[in-house]
Structure prediction request, 88 residues.
Amino acid sequence: MFAGSTLEKIIPEEIERPTPSWFRTNSVTGDEFIESIGFGINALITSRSGGRRWVDQTPHYTPVAALLARLFPGAKFLLIERDGRIDA
Prediction:
C-alpha cells in the first residue's frame, strides 16, 4: 500500500520547503504525521471489526515493515518461519 509511495518523499519536502508550510507552522514532524495516518487507518478498521482486534498476515508487507512500524508505533510484529521440508 505504501511501498515506494510518494508519502515518504512528500513529507520531508513539505517540512523543509523555504516558504511556510502547514507542517512547519504547526511544528508537525514527519513521524507525527505518519503516526496520525496510522491512527486513522486503525480507527477505520476497528470500527468495522465488531470489537475484535484486527490482524493482517500477508507476507507482502515484509518489505515495508519499517514504515508499518511508523504508522502503528504500538503494534506488535510476529514473524513465523515455516520449514517447507516438513509435511503437515
In short: The chain has a mean pLDDT of 81. Residues 7-71 form one domain. The chain is about 45% helix and 0% strand. The chain has one domain: 7-71.
